[in-house]
Amino acid sequence: MKLQYLGTAAAEGTPALFCRCDFCRYARRAGGREIRTRSGAMLDDRIKIDFGPDSYKHELDFGLDYSAVHSVLITHAHEDHLDVDDIAHRRPTSAHFPEGEPPMIVYGNGTVGEKLARIHSPWLAFRQVKPFQPVDVEGYTVTPLEAVHCVRREEPTRWPVTFEGETYGRWEEALFYLIEKDGKSLLYAHDTDEFTPADMDFLAGRRIDLISLDCTNGRLDLTYVGHMGATENRRMRDRLLASGAADGHTVFVANHFSHNGLLPYDELQALLPGFLVSYDGMTVEV
What we know:
CATH superfamily: Ribonuclease Z/Hydroxyacylglutathione hydrolase-like
CATH topology: Metallo-beta-lactamase, Chain A
Structural class: alpha/beta
Number of helices: 7
Number of strands: 17
CATH class: Alpha Beta
Largest sheet: 7 strands, mixed
Order of helices and strands: EHEEHEHEHEEEEEEEEHEHEHEE
Distance between the termini: 5 Å
Number of domains: 1
Strand content: 25-35%
Shape: globular
């Protein structure tokens, strides 16, 4: 399996829109790996993971051809992970295909389906997926897991999730994905906090080849629920190794960074021993 990180930032990008903080000023000067576009990835040059507002730039920058992509996995419907207006261009007049072209199938939760419902195109379809229910996607076994994201305590009856002894409601059933094929496996875990007990039970003993973890908070230790930082990434690595979900051969990657918690690339790497720190365009093969 080959996973290419196309964008590695949170919703505001890095340097962030309109921002004059010290890190954003540094990133503008330094360029290179310090420039991060909104999150997205490509699996084996054929399956797109998330389709955010920088997807068109990714297609140009990395020589991709979205006209040949027929499967997209969406983690959740936040605008930095699902740009409905851009996906809507896969329709007559905006795009041209030969007769009989199959649709591009977008996999995601019910909220994703609601947002896509206004698009009427023979070349676009939606399939709703549920946590822990595997689906076949072009010969890959894709299993959604329950992300700890889009959560609040005030409404614990809707899509409840238990996290660190508290019950939260989710206004959207955010997901992350375990993807398996030909004896190889990867876990793409963005946007989420540390995993729920149900996630950990499902993953135990699987010895996954590549685990990519949300690191939005970077160097910061924050108490709100919904994302991780370096501290949580190190703790999750230990938990996954202890459960047998990972072992000594597993490649761990930290990804999805907000400018608020970022350090220069080499300093961030030093904060995350045992991890690769993602950057736009990075490719990892397992």
